[in-house]
């Protein structure tokens, strides 16, 4: 010890103090972190439980819905509903989107997660895509299982959550965006690949279009008319 | 610099300690980071399922109501007629009148000078689509552009000197009428892109006008004949 230079004593003491301080701090942080970890884990498991619960409920409701719809069909037949009028009703409900439909069409999958993509797919891109599909005569369109109807608004909520029909469509896994369109496959394919797919591909996204027999879900929102009235009833 | 054995071992020990501390720190940081992403993705899917559940239960309640009516022996045709009327209203096949807002957009009367882009002096399909999107998001009940009712299949597509809407060629000025709560509609417009159009108005002289009117008339839309889409048979 005596051989240590005196000049070294001060720096070494300082370093020792600093080190001690650091260790104490680290120990403290470690404690905090493990506490935070625990809380976070708890929250996560709660969230998972809520999510699973809600998904179970969803499956249950869907089953109920199918059963009820089947019963409704039977009831309608029993009371002798005019089949022609029923067809007309179905046609109207296809137009307002409350009827789920199936038929030939195209399924567009867009992946914008690659790091080549500077600007991921935004609400405007989706609106443009849907517009082109409408131009190509699509009879039913859905994006990530949200049916597109006349009153569908596509807006951004916060930084990255895209709302379609007021429902977030962002996916946490799998293909980020899937657009289904029922209609003439050749026309849909032509219009989409020439007018929109090229631009998206240039921006680095992976776009694949497949001809498929599709099912487009029904519009789950509601129509409300509070201000609007029939025009003729007003005028008389 | 010459260090003796003791000093060297001290230095070595402190270095190891420091390294250990760093590793701990990084680990703690990593744990905190990874948790956030899961939560971010779990929340939207939770909201989505919850909303879907709500919509499904409303739909189920509706069907149940109808079944009860059938069971009570209510006339099948009157019930169906009522549903057809409702569906026609939803689908936009009824001429409506009500309070709301009227927006007028027109190309600039000025001509680009020098290097300026003449395109900036025109009204583009994007502007109209953006306004429609904002109006629907603001809770519009019915919207029409230049006498063309906006329905599920309405496209707004620029075809050069005109804009194609519902398969018809429309020229400026574009008059958009929307029935709904005028406060909500104006607020939604101001939130989405209205100010940007204001800048274009100042810079390039395009017309952008918003009026709150008591009697907006939206004509009836057309029914579409479906050749590809078919209603999904329920209960299968």
Automatic annotation (TrEMBL), chain A:
> Has the keyword Coiled coil been applied to this entry?
yes
- Kindly indicate whether the keyword Coiled coil belongs to this entry: yes
Q: Which regions form coiled coils?
A: 44-78
Q: Check the UniProt entry and state the signal peptide residues, or none.
A: none
Q: Mind listing the UniProt keywords for this protein, alphabetically? A: Coiled coil
Question: Mind telling me which PANTHER family this protein's record contains?
Answer: UPF0749 PROTEIN RV1825, UPF0749 PROTEIN YLXX
Q: Which family does it belong to?
A: Belongs to the UPF0749 family.
This protein is called Division initiation protein
Record the organism. Desulfosporosinus meridiei (strain ATCC BAA-275 / DSM 13257 / KCTC 12902 / NCIMB 13706 / S10)
The uppermost taxa in this organism's lineage are:
Bacteria, Bacillati, Bacillota, Clostridia, Eubacteriales
UniProtKB/TrEMBL annotation, chain B:
What InterPro entries does its record include?
A: DUF881
Q: What is any Pfam family matched here?
A: DUF881
Q: Give the Gene3D superfamilies listed for this entry.
A: Protein of unknown function DUF881 (3.30.70.1880)
Question: Coiled-coil annotation: which residues?
Answer: none
PANTHER family the record matches = UPF0749 PROTEIN RV1825 (PTHR37313), UPF0749 PROTEIN YLXX (PTHR37313:SF2)
Q: Which family does it belong to?
A: Belongs to the UPF0749 family.
Listed name of the protein: Division initiation protein
Tell me what organism the protein belongs to. Answer: Desulfosporosinus meridiei (strain ATCC BAA-275 / DSM 13257 / KCTC 12902 / NCIMB 13706 / S10)
């Amino acid at each position: 010890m005596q051989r240590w230079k005196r000049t070294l004593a001060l720096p070494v003491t300082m370093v020792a103090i600093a080190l001690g301080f650091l260790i104490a701090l680290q120990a403290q942080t470690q404690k905090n972190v493990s506490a935070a970890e625990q809380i976070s884990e708890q929250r996560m498991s709660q969230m998972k439980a809520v999510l699973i619960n809600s998904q179970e409920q969803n499956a249950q409701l869907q089953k109920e819905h199918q059963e009820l719809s089947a019963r409704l069909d039977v009831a309608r037949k029993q009371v002798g509903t005019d089949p022609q009028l029923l067809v007309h009703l179905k046609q109207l409900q296809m137009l307002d989107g409350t009827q789920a439909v199936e038929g030939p069409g195209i399924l567009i999958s867009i992946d914008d997660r690659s790091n080549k993509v500077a600007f991921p797919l935004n609400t405007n891109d989706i609106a443009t895509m849907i517009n082109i599909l409408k131009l190509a005569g699509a009879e039913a369109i859905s994006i990530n299982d949200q049916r597109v109807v006349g009153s569908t608004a596509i807006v951004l909520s916060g930084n990255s959550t895209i709302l379609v029909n007021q429902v977030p469509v962002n996916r946490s896994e799998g293909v980020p965006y899937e657009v289904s369109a029922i209609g003439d496959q050749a026309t849909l394919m032509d219009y989409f690949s020439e007018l929109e797919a090229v631009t998206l591909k240039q921006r680095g996204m992976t776009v694949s279009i497949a001809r498929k027999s599709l099912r487009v879900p029904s519009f789950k929102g509601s129509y409300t008319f509070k201000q609007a009235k029939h025009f003729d009833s007003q005028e008389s | 610099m010459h260090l003796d054995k003791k000093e060297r071992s001290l230095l070595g020990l402190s270095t190891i300690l420091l390294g250990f501390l760093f590793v701990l720190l990084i680990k703690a940081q990593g744990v905190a980071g990874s948790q956030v992403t899961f939560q971010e993705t779990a929340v939207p899917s939770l909201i989505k399922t919850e909303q879907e559940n709500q919509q499904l239960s409303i739909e189920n309640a509706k069907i149940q109501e109808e079944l009860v009516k059938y069971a009570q022996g209510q006339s099948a045709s009157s019930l169906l007629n009522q549903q057809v009327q409702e569906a026609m209203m939803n689908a936009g096949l009824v001429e409506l009148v009500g309070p709301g807002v009227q927006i007028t957009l027109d190309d600039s009367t000025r001509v680009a000078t020098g290097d300026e882009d003449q395109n900036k002096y025109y009204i583009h399909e994007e502007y109209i689509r953006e306004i429609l999107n904002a109006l629907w998001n603001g809770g519009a009940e019915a919207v029409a552009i230049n006498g063309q009712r906006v329905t599920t299949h309405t496209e707004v597509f620029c075809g050069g000197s005109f804009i194609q809407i519902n398969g018809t060629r429309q020229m400026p000025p574009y008059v958009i009428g929307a029935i709904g709560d005028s406060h909500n509609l104006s607020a939604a417009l101001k939130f989405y892109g209205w100010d940007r159009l204001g800048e274009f108005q100042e810079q390039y002289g395009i017309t952008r006008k918003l009026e709150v009117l008591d009697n907006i008339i939206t004509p009836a839309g057309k029914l579409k004949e479906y050749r590809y889409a078919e209603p999904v048979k329920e209960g299968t």
